[in-house]
Polyketide synthase
Amino acid sequence: MRQLGLGYGPFFARLHDIVYDRDGHAAASLKLRDYAERMVYAEEDPCVIHPTTLDALCHLQMAALSAGGLRPIPTMMFTHCQEMWISNKLFGLPGNPLMHAASTQTMRGFRESEFDTVAVLDGTNEPTQEADAACYSLDFRADLSLMASSTTTHNYLMKHTFRRFELPDKDLMDRADAMSIFYVEQVLDRLEAEGVPQYGDYRDLYIKWMQRARSQREKYVPASRGRNDLDGKALAASPKPTEPTTRLVHKVGENLYDILTGKANVMEVLFENRLVDDYYSAEMFKIHAHRVGAYIELLAHANPYLKILEIGAGTGSSAAGVLPYLVYDQGGGRELKRLSEYVYTDVSTGFFENARERFAKYSSVMTFKKLDVEQDPVSQGFEEGRYDIVIAGNVLHATSDMHQSLRAARSLLKPGGKLIMVEICNPESIREGLIFGLLPGWWLRTERGTTCVYPNQGPLLTEAQWNEVMIDCGFSGVDMQWRDHEELPYHRLTTIVATAVEPASRSESSIATVSALSPSQAATTDVTGATVVCLLELDKSVLRKVDETQIEVIKALALRAKTLLWVTTGGGLDTLNPDAELSTGFGRTVCSERGEQGVLVASLASESVKNPRRGSALLATILSKVQEQRQGDGDGWRESELAEYDGVWHIPRVVPNGSLNDSVARRILKPGSQPCLIGPEADRRIRLSINNPGLLDTLRFKEIPDAEKPLSDDEVEIRVMSSSINFKDVMIALGQIPGNGFGYDGAGIISRIGPKCQHTKVGERVMFVSVTGAFSTFVRVSELQTHPMPDTMPFTVAASIPVVYCTALYSIDYVARLRPGESILIHAGAGGVGQAAVMIAKQRGATIYVTAGSQTKRDLLVNEYGIPPENIFSSRDASFYDDIMCATNGRG
């Protein structure tokens, strides 16, 4: 470095073990804080990363540029950093850890060079510097904890959060029930004819269940629901069904006798041809997975550091439904996480290897641990009261002591934490009894003498029975429940939410209301330690024009009150009143200076200000929540800003703005490019796009996403040989109109076809229309968007036909409905659409009038299409109007 004109002393000469090559790469190691060893006389100020450490990373770039000093270079200095990211984990890191750094030259010029540099801590792959998001925005979402009741929460979720699903098909369930009762009666009759054996295991319980089902057959036969057209015997003998539950019923029923007599293995029957996998992938389970995920996403908005534990995770169907709601791509390689930990547990570790592979993208937040929920979790290495959410999907019913299992789940939860279960809550469901009653785990429950009564119904409980058990075990009971179907014969699954509760404590507190500012009120009202509700901003903004006396009163309230609830209107989600945001700034400033929740700014909607009863009820929910926290009974709720929307309090969070970050990146980053072969021999699937419409130098070919995924049933893939260009493509490129791609028609050779394509074959020459852009090496379109082309027609000619002729055909036949003898005026008759329209109009036997903009175009229309010269008018001005009226005797 000194030979290059850069002489650094001991404080800056930090790199060691430097390696390099002649192609602009270099790597080295350095200690994070070895500068401290040389600064023994000075006291170190706390910092995330020391300036000399940053400077040393720039020295590495010089090593890459000069090939370790072997290549002479002019004297150069570090002058600009485009982006930098420094991990906050470096702050307070103990000791003097080792870092490894690498630098790659990305641009070399006569006067300047550019580099990418990354540094990681020894033993990790986590970078201490990298590019990150630059743009953020406020995201307001509902705070479920501030809703007045579980009914309000349920209704909000159903209206605003949960997607609408089709209810399960009742006909399919009727068919499954008809087959189920048929198989039960058929096999039971056979066993009784042979003498019912005593197996001494769960099969005895299963046979008793069969006998009860037969004695109560009226509950199960579809005839009791008005379906006299379904015969179980006939359905069992019919071709194999395709719906997952019905398939499973059919398969189990066919093998039921052999399973009970030991001639067939129940696990082999259930898992043959993915029967159980398909069952758990059915729509009814997707409905509940979506609801659990969407519900937890709202909880994660309030607390983006959720700790979640799943009991009995098994193959991962619940985790697969929940995690995409909590970890998702923000664009540009940025990932947004709204949890800090997801513990994947099961009584068997055999599931973990496949789960690790399946959920590899979530490895940064996911851990795997064995957990037997029927034993004390603490004795198995779990921390008591650690988790915000415990998930249990179809698992707690299959334990020997349900109370012990629920108490174990309760011990894992923080006070106020949520237990979210998905359970079969219809003990009368013969379908599930027939299938899963054949598993020993179905009959594990043995507890007796509890406050709940289980009337010989197997392991399944109704929602009301779950409510009683949960209250016994330290939960609030069933706070919310979502069924897959409200009609009992068709209902199977219920999602249940319960809250971990603590014995409530009570303490006295005072609430003061301020509706006017006066020095005398400030002097006589003692608000020390009280919760103060300030309504000053409801009529007009006080902070917009505040005098010295008023500011002293406001300061007294903010500094003396334990909590100042500052109520305003018109701010938050849709800021209708800019003055309301003065309150937001005021609240943030006080909270920053006090270092605690001093001011809570709540913005009411105008409807709630006009309706005092509604507004008071909304403020009461806030005061109740504040009171909970003061008494130590709360869940750690600490908000400083609230905004009402549609009768529900919403809370803001700062989140990366993915679309804005991508837009900024496209404008400031130089896109990488590389040569690429395009033509008949090219197999790379790329498409023309433009990064910045209006800037033609940003036109470039990009990879087509999902190009290799399987074709849809009626879809074909075409290797593009020629594409046409029209005025719309030009206008899109110039930024004059929006568009998704370039080229709306083309011609090529079919390379792949979907399984149900009937009119095309691989290798066929076709012309096509495409909405995704024909300026591609390959396109995927519906079979209906293609048409065969003659072997003698060049691809360039075929590519020019589809759009112009489709436009002309649609206009003439479907809009104008042109008939023989009628007249037609075709503007720009020498253009692509114009020529197509001329040919179609001639075929229809119409009298044709055209306009043209030059003599060359007039000659084309006369010589090629036989248009009489007197029927050709100018398109350069409005004179054609008089000419056409004259030629048609005023008819037009």
Observations:
- The radius of gyration is 37 Å.
- The longest strand covers residues 413-424.
- Residues 126-131, 448-453 have pLDDT under 50 and may be disordered.
- The chain is about 35% helix and 20% strand.
